[in-house]
Specification:
The chain has ten helices and four strands; from the N terminus they run H-H-H-E-E-H-H-H-H-H-E-E-H-H. It has 478 residues and is of the alpha+beta class. It has a single domain, classed as Outer membrane efflux proteins (OEP) (Up-down Bundle), CATH 1.20.1600.10. Strands 1-2-3-4 form a four-stranded antiparallel β-sheet, covered by helices on one side. The C terminus is likely disordered.
Length: 478
């Protein structure tokens, strides 16, 4: 092909380079995603709060410290960062498709005479080749668009992993503190039951009651003692889980958490805003939206394959017998080619239809993620309200059970009541104490779940990006 013909093709390609095949991405509105104007459950009529550091609202420095260590050391978070870096490199590779490729080469050859024939000599050569595929119908640009959306989706996936780990650390911390409180209740009850057993033995020795009271006291004490190892195992499991969540060995945090501390409470109310806020705040919703954008762009990538492809290239070569004269004679050539698929059995059009179906699937996944997010929020609101109501009732029950147990204990010592009444009163007291602990634990975990459902734990005003790669080491780690 002549240079004039190649120039003509290039002049025709440049105006077409502004075209882009396939549909342009269109953000979906709240109504199209089925988002209602308000929640179906009673929620605090407050604007949504800044929940970037929601754990600080529990006013527990140890909890804040564990969450900070989890963000730095958790292995799932580290893997999410690695995936984010992979997505960034995919974007770099996609952008590279828009630019020409240039290669250079150099060589030296030498003739050696054989059996005295010919004359020894050598030659040097230098050359360069360049090639560029004109993006006539925007397939490469759609590829960059898809890679950009995929990179952003990976950033939101990282944020989702981070927020889930933060909530899991907080939940296990609350459960560990609840197990400590239940252990304390069981040990306090065991001490009282030891005292009751001693009193029953004295009364039997004095002939005031039968040995039935002693056996009943022994049975009650044994049942309470039997529950302690189970509580200790639960506590150990929660602490071990905290160690792994912070990127450490299971037993690393046992000395630190050994001291008994109360269950963290958190604020009395949380401003949840309106359902439409979920589209901006939840990282999984943002990720699903970016996945839809990537799927839409991929339709254009497939559609561009239906149209002609123009490739333009050229080469420059120089050679001489000595290195100093290598640039004295330079030759070059320019070439261009146009390719168009004539028949492929419908393969390319099938690829377009497949990408369109993938985009439809991405939209449905996006909508499902939005509706699931709203479900999570409403369930957490109801769970928090129920736990707070139960806590209030258990406080009343504990006050009444404490008074009842105190009176029953005094009356049994004075011989005014039987051991069955005392036994029932002590059982009700332990049940009320554990019920209050469970309600407090449920309230704290429901509050954590609400913070997670609202998308707290990251700055939703920015798109997470991969941290810079450390260039101070070579690929082999040296």
């Amino acid at each position: 092909m002549s240079r004039r013909t190649a120039a003509l093709l290039l002049s025709l390609a440049l105006p077409l380079a502004g075209c882009a095949s396939g549909p342009d991405y269109r953000p979906r509105g709240a109504a199209e995603l089925g988002v209602p104007g308000s929640y179906s459950v009673t929620a605090p009529a407050q604007e949504r709060e800044d929940l970037t550091r929601w754990w600080d609202r529990f006013d527990d420095p140890q909890l804040s410290s564990l969450i900070a260590r989890g963000a730095e050391g958790n292995l799932d978070v580290a893997r999410a960062v690695a995936r984010l870096r992979q997505a960034r490199e995919s974007l770099v590779q996609a952008r590279g498709q828009l630019l020409p490729g240039v290669t250079a080469s150099g060589g030296y050859s030498r003739n050696l005479p054989v059996n005295g024939g010919g004359q020894a000599g050598g030659s040097f050569s230098i050359g360069a080749d360049a090639s560029w595929q004109a993006d006539l119908f925007g397939g490469n640009r759609r590829g960059v668009e898809a890679a950009q959306a995929g990179y952003q989706a990976s950033g939101f996936d990282y944020a989702q992993v981070l927020t889930a780990i933060q909530a899991e650390i907080a939940r296990n911390y609350v459960l560990a503190r609840a197990a400590q409180a239940q252990l304390a209740n069981a040990r306090d009850a065991l001490a009282i039951q030891d005292d009751n057993l001693q009193i029953a033995q004295w009364r039997v020795q004095a002939g005031l009651v039968s040995s039935l009271d002693v056996e009943a006291a022994r049975a009650q004490r044994a049942q309470t003692a039997a529950g302690i190892p189970s509580l200790e195992a639960s506590y150990n499991g929660f602490v071990s889980r905290l160690g792994v969540l912070t990127g450490q060995a299971p037993g690393a945090l046992k000395p630190e958490l050994e001291a008994v501390r109360p269950i963290p409470r958190g604020p009395a109310a949380v401003g949840v805003g309106i359902p439409a806020d979920t589209l901006r705040q939840r990282p999984d919703v943002r990720s699903a939206e970016r996945s839809l954008a990537a799927a839409t762009a991929n339709i254009g990538v497939a559609a561009a394959q239906l149209y002609p492809a123009l490739s333009i290239g050229g080469s420059i070569d120089a050679g001489a017998a000595s290195i100093g004269n290598v640039f004295d004679v330079i030759t070059g050539r320019l070439f261009a080619s146009v390719a168009q698929t004539i028949f492929d059995g419908g393969r390319l059009r099938s690829q377009v239809r497949a990408r369109e179906a993938a985009a439809e699937d991405a939209f449905l996944a996006y909508k499902s993620t939005v509706l699931t997010a709203l479900e999570d929020i409403e369930n957490a609101i109801v769970a928090l309200q129920a736990a707070r109501t139960r806590e209030g009732e258990y406080r009343v029950a504990l006050d009444a059970a404490s008074t009842q147990a105190l009176l029953a204990r005094d009356q049994y010592r004075a011989g005014l009541t039987d051991f069955t009444t005392l036994n029932q009163a002590e059982a009700q007291l332990l049940s009320a104490r554990n019920g209050l602990v469970q309600a407090q634990s449920d309230g704290a975990t429901a509050l954590i779940q609400l913070y997670l459902a609202l998308g707290g734990g990251w700055d939703s005003s920015v798109t997470p990006e991969a941290p810079p790669i450390n260039t101070g080491s070579t690929p082999d780690g040296n």
